[in-house]
Design brief:
The chain has helices at 3-17, 22-36, 39-50, 58-65, 73-78, 81-84. The protein is mostly helical.
Amino acid sequence: MNTEKLIRMANQIAGFFRSYPEDKALAGIRDHLVAFWTPGMRNAIEAYARQGGDGLDPLVAKALRAEQPAESPIRKEVAGPEEVGHLGSDAG
């Protein structure tokens, strides 16, 4: 996938999270990239950001530099009650 498309996609993710508080937005962007982007896509956008990241939304650039590791939100969605806890829904 070309870099321009990755930039556009990453900026769309940032656009979605823009209304969130910054810490939640950064976590949401990181989590989305882990959950839905291939390792190759993530590596490419991270390398681009390290080279200056022209055109990247500032939220994306900051999320890519964050020290906090991202966790796939999919894991939580498919976790059983032993992982979610007793208040987790068993619906669906």
